[in-house]
Amino acid sequence: MSLSLSTISREQHLAYLQSLPSASHCQVPAWADVKNEWRSENLGWFDKSGELVGAALVLYRQLPKVKRYLAYLPEGPVINWYAPNLEEWLQPMLAHLKHQGAFTVKMGPPVVIRRWNSAAIKAGIQDPDVKRLRDVEASVIEPRAFEVSDKLRRMGWQQAEDGGAGFGDVQPRYVFQVPLANRSLDDVLKGFNQLWRRNIKKAEKAGVEVVQGGYEDLPTWQYLYEITAERDKFRPRPLSYFQRQWTALNSEDPNRMRLYIAKHEGEPLAAATMLTVGQHVWYSYGASANHKREVRPSNAMQWRMLRDSYALGASIYDLRGISDTLDENDHLFGLIQFKVGTGGEAVEYVGEWDFPLNKMLHKALDIYMSRR
């Protein structure tokens, strides 16, 4: 297969993604407008007949005082990762990015390597000798993903360090997904554990109402999000980030980003943003108040979002990042504990990979990032 690579228009890029069942929300052209502190570029791969067969959103971050850039392809590029001639896809990309002034390239192949169903995860949690997901036998292993990793290593790509909890990458290596394809909503609800089903009923009985919000409701979201940030000790993004995200993504597709708010007696208690690309739906950000937790607004909200995803024809409802820890004493354990109750599965991707085009500058970046 003879491939050529060139820059493409946003319209070509979007049309290509729309021809696929799905792609990451980090690879849609409008994501460049969300990440407006980065310079961006849309790349396309063409076969010998001139047909567009792959695409990528590249984000460029300039080094201070030097005209050299980190080139980042979050959860991309969108290419045929199982192609036997993977080098023919990636070498032209590296040459192009080097010509653009990149000193290093970071990418996140959207390639799944392992899956663990909820039964396997629960068994792991109950086993005192098991501390991490990787200590549990995977329910599904994708041999072709190991081949992709081997090919990348042989080409000189370096895998980003794990960071000890699956958070070594910029985008999460481990996520939690609820499969929806070939299942009825009844099947999905039956897959929830007893506690989740009880909490959904409790919220219903208490009169929790889940509504879809608009741009004008983003300050309500921000209020709950900042409460959550204080409680969970993380630095929140500003309201302007979510306003920009809403405007950029929904200008590209009116259904790309949604806001859900769970209310009790008219008071907002929980909120979440949801992103959709093709048949893949992501629960992106979530927030909740510190009081009235007994009426279970978060469970009610997730169940509404899941039902709406199903109505949109989604094949996957993605609860996004989890840690790989199964240790109940680890502060990150709650991430998987809450999500496993949905009866879904933990999914491991091959992670993010770096290609140093200038080894000295790449090493300097590594040292800088490790000190942050």
Automatic annotation (TrEMBL):
What top-level class of enzyme does the UniProt entry assign? transferase
Q: Give a GO molecular function annotation for the protein.
A: aminoacyltransferase activity
Any GO BP: peptidoglycan biosynthetic process
Gene3D superfamilies per UniProt: 3.40.630.30
Q: What is its EC number?
A: 2.3.2.16
- Span of the signal peptide: none
Q: Which PANTHER family match?
A: LIPID II:GLYCINE GLYCYLTRANSFERASE
Record protein name field: Lipid II:glycine glycyltransferase
